[in-house]
Amino acid sequence: MMDWSIPITAVLLFFSCLGDAANSCPSDSLILMGFNEPKYISSPSADNVALTQMTHSFLAMVQPNKFPTDFVISIVNNAQFFMEKSGVEKILNYMVGFLVCAVIGVLYIVLVPVIGCCFSCCRCCDNCGGKMYQKQTERTNCKRKGFYWALWAITLIILVGNIIMFCSSNSFSKGISTGPELINITTSNLNIFLNNIPKEISYLIEESSQPVNKVNNSVNDIGPILIDMMLENLGDSVNATKDSLIKLNNVNIYIGAQLENLSEISEKFTQNQIVLVTNLTNIRTQINSTLNSPECKGCPGEGKNILDKLVPVTVFPRLPSFNDEMNAVNEVKKADLPSTLNKSMASVQKELETTTSNLVSGVQNELSTIKGKIQSVSQNIPLTSISNITSEITQIGIEVNNYVPVISKASNYSNTIGIIASCLILLIVLCNIMGLLLGPLTMKSSADPTERTSVANCGGTFFMAGAGLSFLYSWLLMVIVLILFLLGGSAYTLICRPWENNELLQLIDTPGVIPDFNISQMLGLDTNVEISQIYNDCKNDSALWSVLQLGKKTDLNEVLNISKYTTGIKDEFDKTNFTLPQIQILTDNVRASMENFTTQIGKIDFTPFMEQINKNFTVGELDDAAKSLETLASKVSNQIIKKQLINEAKDLRNLQNWTYSQLMTYKVILNKTVQQLNTSAASVPAIINSTIQNALNAQDILKQNGSSILKAESREFLDCQLGYFQTYLTWVQKTVTQDVARCKPFTNAVDSIETVVCKNVVNSLNAFWYSLGWCLMFLLPSIIVSVKLAKFYRRMKYTDSYEDPSPRIEMTPVMMYTNSMLPVKT
Is residue 462 classed exposed, middle or buried when 0-12, 13-18 and 19+ CB atoms within 10 A define those classes? Predict the structure, then answer.
C-alpha cells in the first residue's frame, strides 16, 4: 500500500515555515520600560490652625496693598531709601493699616492702666459705684438679668478665644519643634531625587543593549531570515503549492485508510461466508437425512424442492492487485521529496552564509562601535556636580541638626509663655464664671441689699476681682499682642502671602534684587530661565529637560540622529552582493514518479469485485425453505419426524437471521467503501497535476525573480535592523524630555519650607495674637458689665426699699446701725 504521509508532511512543514515569516521585522518588539518612581519620605502635613482664615481676612483688611516690589527694588538699589522723605512717605502709606492698629494697641496699653488707676481712686472716694448703696427701682431685677446674661455671653466669647489661644500656642511650639524634622525630610528627598538622576541616565545607556543585541542576533541568522522573507514575498505561488500539498496529503491519507479498511472488511466478509457455507451444508445434510427416513412418508417428493433452495453460492471475492501503483509509490518514496527541498534550501542558505560572512563580522564591529558611542554620552554629562550638590544639601541638614537643642529650648519657652498668657486670661474668665454661678445661687430678688447672703456677696466679689485683674495686666498682654502683630502680620503680608501667590519668586527673578544673581548663568544655560517658571513647571512634575529649556542649548534631534550611529551598518550592506543560486524544488525523477502514479491510480477497477460481493448467498431464500419444512411437518403423522422438521426449519431461520446481521452488514460497508475509493481515486490525478504545476510555477518564479527579490528583501532586512535603533532613539528622546529628572521633589522642598515658616509658625503665631487680642478687646465690656453686675450681688451698707409708685415718694438713704453703733442711754 502507498504511503505519502512522510514526504508530503515534510514539504508542508517547510512551507508552513514560510508563513511564519510574515512578521519578519517586529521592530516594536523592543521592551523599553519607563522608570520606577523613587520612594520619597512622606512629609507630615501642616496643622489646621483655628482662626487662620479669619486672621488672613483681618490682615487682608489691614494690608490690602499688593506686594511692594518697587519698594524692595528701591531699597536694594538705594540704601538711603529709608532716610529720604519720599521713601518714608511711601513706606508709611503702604503700612498705614499696621500703623492704625499699632496706634489702637498703644492707646490700649496707655489708657487701660490709667483708667484702671483713676477708676480705683474714684471708687475709694465712694464714687464710680464705690459707695455701698444701690437704689432700688422697678427695673432693678430687669437690669440685673440683662447684665447677667450679657456677662455670660462676653465670658463665653472670651473663653472661646482663650481656648483658641491655647491651641494656637501649642501649634506654634509644635511647628518650631518639628521644623528640623521637616527640613531633614526635605533634604533627604532632594538627595534621593538628585542621586536618582545618574541611575536614570545609566538605565537609558544600558537599554541600548536591546537594539544592539537584536541586530546582532538577526545578522547571525541573516541566511534563514532572508530566505523566509524572500519566499514570503512570493505570495500566491507559494500558498498555492502549499494548499495543493495539503490537499494531496489529505487525500493520500484517506485513500490509504480506506484501502486498509476495505482489505480488513473483505477478509471478514470472506470468513463469514465460509461459516455460512459450512452451516448451511450441515443443515442441508440433516434435512436430507430426515426426508429420506422411512418414517417420513411422502417426504422425498416434496423435500427435493426444499433441498434445491439450500444449495450455497460460493462467492469468495478478491481485491484487485495494486502492484503497479505500489511500485509508483515506492519510486516517489525513493526520490525523497523532503530531502530534495532541504538540499535545495540548504544550498541557498549555505551560499548566503558564505556571501554574508564578511557582512556579519563587519556589522558586529559596527555594533561594538555604536555601543561605545552611546556609552560615551554619559561621560559628557557632568554627573560629578550632582554629588557636590548632594553633599551641600547634606551639610545643610547637619547644620540644622546642630541647632536642634536651641530650637527645642525656643519651643519650650514659647509654649511656657503661651500657657502663662492663657492662664492669665483664664483666671479672669474663672472669676466671671464663679461670680455668675455664686451670685444668683442664694440670691432673692426681694431681699434687702444689706441682707444679701454671703454666697451672693462672694459672687459679686469675684466680679470685682475679675475687673481688677483685667485692669492689672491686660495692658501688659496687649504689649505682647502688639509686638506679635507687627512681627506675624508683617511676616504674613511680606513673606507668606506673596510666597503663596508666587510674587516672592517673581521678585527674586527681578534683575537687581539679588546682586549678581542669575539662575541661567548659574546653570550654564543660554536661555533666560526664571525661578518662578521652574517652580510652576516642577509643580506639574515636568522633566528638567523641558523645565530648563535644554532643547534650546542642545539639539536632541541632532544628538539622537540615527545616521550618526547606523551609517557603518548601511555601508556594510551596500558592499554585499546578494545573489540567489539555482533552486530546483522538484527534480525530473520526482516529477516522473508523480506522473506515473497519476497514470497508475487511474487504472484501479473495482467492477469485478463489486459484481462478486453483490450476488446472493444461496439459490433460494432460507426463509422460504423453512416455511416449506413447517408445511411438510404439519402433514407428517410421525411425531419424531415432525419435531425434527420443525427444529430444522428453526435452524434455517436462525441461519437466515445471522446472515442478515453479519454478511449483509459487511456487504453494505464494502459497497460504500468502494464508492468512496472510486471518488477519491478519481480526484488524485487532478490534485497531483495541480501540485506539480504549482511547484513548477514557484520554481520558475524563483529562477526568474529570486535574485531581485532577495536584494529587495535584504534592503527591507536592513531597514528592519535600523528600525530597532530608531525605536530605541525615539524612546530615549521621549524619556529624556518627559521622564528623566522629573522635578516635583524640588517644588515639594520649596513647599516644605513654606510649610515650616508660614503654615506651622507664622499662621500659629498670628492665630495666637489674634485670639489674645480678641480676649483683650472683650475684656473691656467685661470690666464694665462685671462692675455693674457686682452691685446687684454684693452686700450693701446702706439700705433702700421700693414701694408702689402710687403716690411716688422720694426715698432717702437711711444709715443702718449695728448694735455696737446704737447710741447709749444715760
Answer: buried
Amino acid identity at 559: V
Q: Please give the pLDDT value at position 4.
A: 38
Give the C-alpha separation, 134 to 137, whole Å. Answer: 9
Count of all residues that appear for the chain in the document? 826
3-state secondary structure of 798: strand
Question: Which residue, 796, 759, 789, is CA-closest to 55?
Answer: 759
Residue 248 CA from chain centroid, whole number: 53
CB 622 within 8 A of CB 656: yes
C-alpha to C-alpha distances, 448 to 136, 144, 443, 745, 786, nearest whole angstrom: 9, 15, 10, 76, 21
Identify the CA nearest to 311 among candidates 632, 617, 675.
617
* Predicted pLDDT of residue 105: 93
Provide DSSP, 676-744: HHHHHHHHHHHHHHHHHHHHHHHHHHHHHHHHHHHHHHHHHHHHHHHHHHHHHHHHHHHHHHHTTTB-H
| Residue 448: how many other CB atoms lie within 10 Å | 14
> In this model, does residue 326 exceed pLDDT 70?
no
Beta bridge partners of 312: 618
Based on its alpha-carbon atoms, the radius of gyration of the chain, rounded to whole angstroms, reads: 59
Whole-number Cα distances in Å, 189 to 196, 237, 371, 394, 514: 10, 65, 33, 11, 27
Q: What is the pLDDT of residue 606?
A: 67
Q: Which residues pair with 133 in a beta bridge?
A: 798
Dihedral sign, CA of 511, 513, 515, 521?
Answer: negative
With beta carbons less than 8 A apart as the criterion, state whether 449 and 797 touch: no
Q: Cell digits for 59?
A: 490682615
Region of residue 652 (left: phi > 0; alpha: psi -120 to 50; beta: else): alpha
Yes or no: say if 266 and 319 are a contact pair by the CB < 8 Å rule.
Answer: yes
Q: How far is CA 244 from the centre of its chain?
A: 50
Q: Decide: residue 12, CB within 10 A, 0-12 exposed, 13-18 middle, 19+ buried.
A: middle
Q: Could you give phi then psi for residue 495, rounded to 5 degrees?
A: -125, -60
Give the Cα separation of 486 and 175 in Å (integer): 20
* 620 has a pLDDT exceeding 70: no
Cell of 718: 536592513
Cell numbers for 675, please give them. 464508492
Whether the predicted pLDDT of 92 surpasses 50: yes
The one-letter amino acid at 520: S
Tell me the per-residue pLDDT of 375-391, one tens digit each, with 9 for 90 and over.
666 655 656 666 777 78
Q: Under 8 Å CB-to-CB from 656, ≥6 apart: which residues?
A: 621, 622, 623, 626
Are 370 and 212 a contacting pair, CB within 8 Å? Answer: yes
Interhelix angle 404-438/763-790, nearest 10 degrees:
20
Residue 475 pLDDT more than 90? yes
Cβ pair 725, 29 in contact under 8 A: no
Q: Residue 474: name the closest of 463, 485, 482 by CA.
A: 482
Give the integer Cα–Cα distance in Å for 284 and 288.
6
Measured CA to CA, the distance from residue 353 to residue 218 in angstroms comes to 13
Q: At what angle do helices 639-738 and 179-206 cross, to 10 degrees?
A: 110
* Distance between CA atoms of residues 700 and 767, nearest Å: 95
Return d(Cα 363, Cα 115) in angstroms, integer.
101
In terms of pTM, does the model score above 0.70?
Answer: no
Instruction: Of 534, 532, 562, 568, give the one whose Cα is nearest residue 548.
Output: 534
Helix (H, G, I), strand (E, B) or coil at 134: coil
Three-class secondary structure of residue 799 per DSSP: strand
How far apart, in whole angstroms, are the C-alpha atoms of residue 712 and residue 413?
Answer: 86
Among 158, 102, 109, smallest CA distance to 475 is for 109
Of all residues in the chain, the percent with pLDDT exceeding 70 is 61
User: Would you say 432 and 155 are in contact if contact means Cβ atoms under 8 Å apart?
Assistant: yes
- For 35, the 3-state DSSP assignment is coil
